[in-house]
Amino acid sequence: MSYFSEETSVQAVLDRLSDDVDSRFREIVTSFIKHLHGFVKDVEPTMAEWGQAIKYLTAMGQICDDKRQEWVLFSDTTGVSMLVDAINHRRPDGATENTVLGPFHVGGAPERALGDSICLDGKGAPCVVSGRVTDEDGNPIAGAKLDVWQTNDDGFYDVQQPGEQPDMNMRGLFTADEDGSYNYVTVKPLPYSIPTDGPVGRFLDGMGRHAMRPAHIHYIVSAPGYETLVTHIFVTGDPYIESDAVFGVKESLIVDFEEVDGGHRARFDVKLKKLD
Ligand code: BEZ
Ligand code: FE
Q1: CB 190 within 8 A of CB 215
Q2: Which long-range contacts (CB under 8 A, 24 or more apart) does 52-61 make?
Q3: Residue-by-residue pLDDT tens, the chain, 276 positions
Q4: What is the pTM of this model?
Q5: How far apart are CA 268 and CA 131, in angstroms?
Q6: Ligand 1 atom having least distance to the Cα of 216
Q7: Which of 36, 78, 107, 209 is such that its CA lies 20 to 30 A from the CA of 225?
Q8: How far is Cα 175 from Cα 198, in angstroms, rounded to an integer?
């Protein structure tokens, strides 16, 4: 047993861990206390600075509701979301890479037929996206489900403009055909800003960072017997491709959006990893 002092701080807290706590919980709490105290010892905050930190964390919680998740934004903009994702999806060479889910996914997107448009507001020039879903060896995965979503031609998700955009605008659930092929119509995505009107906006400002995400289309691709893939496709040449506010870009996910008569065309093939 040690009384609390600057020198014994970590041990003083860890001594209070009961012998019968779950072993994984013990591992996590032990590391958390070590790193938290290490951070405080490194930074040596003034009382005022620590008070500010508590206020900041409080504001982060207070702005959250069922539509706004500031903690996820914080995790995203500090690179933690991508780190957790990387640790959990060490994919074999060849399987399509993961990236962040983001806060704008909505369950229950409408099932659409191959070739349908997800653009319900009529804004923007048509863009045809097509590709094939296969396993790592290139065998087609017939019936794979592709849940896709993106911002509209004004750069907003439908859930950010309720009443202004049609419900489920720019969202669709597609089923790959016998050959694993899929295609749908959308508009070429645009770069957009993550929400900056909360504590995360102040954090980015303080670091002199912008809040932009390069243009992208979100995908969740699933099929029985395969690991579900959460990813995006990004647009070649996007001005924010090297400075995504949430660190989501991977080179293998950058796709050419070719100009064609009156619109665009892009191709994105997906390789799913077999479940062990
Ligand atoms: C998104 O791409 O929808 C997103 C991802 C992370 C933070 C904010 C938005
Ligand atoms: Fe997005």
Answers
A1: yes
A2: 56/199, 59/198, 59/199, 60/198, 60/199, 60/200
A3: 778 999 999 999 999 999 999 999 999 999 999 999 999 999 999 999 999 999 999 999 999 998 789 999 999 999 999 999 999 988 777 899 999 999 899 999 999 999 999 999 999 999 999 999 999 999 999 999 999 999 999 999 999 899 999 999 999 999 999 999 999 999 999 999 999 999 999 999 999 999 999 999 999 999 999 999 999 999 999 999 999 999 999 999 999 999 999 999 999 999 999 998
A4: 0.92
A5: 5
A6: 2
A7: 107
A8: 38
Residue-wise over 33-60: b if at least 16 C-beta within 10 A, else e? beeebeeeeeeeeeeeeeeeeeeeeeeb
- Distances, alpha carbon 252 to alpha carbons 23, 98, 101, 185, 232, in Å: 38, 10, 17, 22, 10
- Altogether, the residues listed in the chain come to a count of 276
**Pairing assessment for the beta strands 145-149 and 171-175 based on DSSP bridges:** antiparallel
CA of residue 189 to ligand 1 center, whole Å:
14
Q: Give SS3 for 15.
A: coil
Contact 244 CB / ligand 1 (< 6 Å): no
Domains, the chain: 88-272 (2.60.130.10)
**Helix count (H) and strand count (E) of the chain?**
6, 12
CA distance 157 to 103: 10
Maximum separation of any 2 CA atoms in the chain, in Å:
76
Q: Ligand 1, residue 213: give the atom nearest the CA.
A: 2
Annotate 206-239 with b (16+ C-beta within 10 A) or e (fewer). Answer: eeeeebbbbbbbbbbbbbeebbebbbbbbbeebe
Q: Where are the alpha helices (DSSP H) in 98-241?
A: 199-207
User: Residue 226 corresponds to which tokens in the numbers above?
Assistant: 């395969």
Amino acid letter, residue 211 = A
Residue linked to tokens 């924010």: 240
